[in-house]
Amino acid sequence: QKETPLANAAFWAARKGNLALLQLLLNSGRVDVDCKDSLGTTALMVASYYGHIDCVRELVLQGADINLQRESGATPLFFAAQQGHNDVVKFLFEFGASTEFKNKDGGTALLAACQYGHAKVVDTLLKHGANIHDQLYDGASAIFLAAQGGYLDVIRLLLSSGAKVNQPRQDGTAPLWIASQMGHSEVVRVMLLRGAERDAARDDGTTALLKAAIKGYNNVIEELLKFSPTLGLLKNGTSALHAAVLSGNVRTVALLLEAGADPCLRNKANELPAELTKNERILRLLRMKEKQRKS
């Protein structure tokens, strides 16, 4: 199973989708159909990654082992799912591909398809018994990875198939938090409507609203504010208003003040929001709100 010039030619044919050359090499009897490169990659993995269904079919019919794992743990099914080749995924299932293999990070074919936003592949995998509760070793779930990428169609599919909208990563990061941090306002809206915990805090005390305020993602903030998240002091000793003032985003500050954020609230360092900026427009907004509150 060592690499030889002929084996390398077979890998090249699988990569380029050159079926005639691949058949010639396999039929010569001088290339093992499961020969591996130095990382444990097989020709079937290569053909699956590049989506060459004719080469995949030829290799499988010539007896290639569908469930061999590369050193990283990835299988042909993993590569086809990661790259969004639904025809290859379906074909591999016909010949007994397993959804259960994990790579060194705990990644499965389903997690790879979710991470890269391949909704049709996710649907195929779920129909063939993939576990919707798969997680990377750091606790990231299928819905977490889809939320991170902003893949709304994948998220809807996962939610309708029983995914848990609030399943956090090991560091406490919820799917809503990561969607807010990445600025995916449509995903945030759908998750909130499907029961996402608006104030879920990470282990470091930060919430979705705080992250969006730091980044100035006003579309996300507007969605979160519809669900009345906490505007007061968080357990990490700051507020969304303090974060917005510090970031210098005038529109964010205005949104938070309109929603009822208190300009007289002090953070754990005993600072008022107004003490964190020299921006005149922000200071004017804060002063106006203070006057309104007093009157």
Automatic annotation (TrEMBL):
<dbReference type="Pfam" id="PF12796">
    <property type="entry name" value="Ank_2"/>
</dbReference>
<protein>
    <submittedName>
        <fullName>ANR29 protein</fullName>
    </submittedName>
</protein>
<dbReference type="InterPro" id="IPR036770">
    <property type="entry name" value="Ankyrin_rpt-contain_sf"/>
</dbReference>
<feature type="repeat" description="ANK">
    <location>
        <begin position="138"/>
        <end position="170"/>
    </location>
</feature>
<dbReference type="InterPro" id="IPR002110">
    <property type="entry name" value="Ankyrin_rpt"/>
</dbReference>
<feature type="repeat" description="ANK">
    <location>
        <begin position="72"/>
        <end position="104"/>
    </location>
</feature>
<keyword id="KW-0040">ANK repeat</keyword>
<feature type="repeat" description="ANK">
    <location>
        <begin position="236"/>
        <end position="268"/>
    </location>
</feature>
<dbReference type="Pfam" id="PF13637">
    <property type="entry name" value="Ank_4"/>
</dbReference>
<feature type="repeat" description="ANK">
    <location>
        <begin position="105"/>
        <end position="133"/>
    </location>
</feature>
<dbReference type="Pfam" id="PF00023">
    <property type="entry name" value="Ank"/>
</dbReference>
<feature type="repeat" description="ANK">
    <location>
        <begin position="171"/>
        <end position="203"/>
    </location>
</feature>
<feature type="repeat" description="ANK">
    <location>
        <begin position="39"/>
        <end position="71"/>
    </location>
</feature>
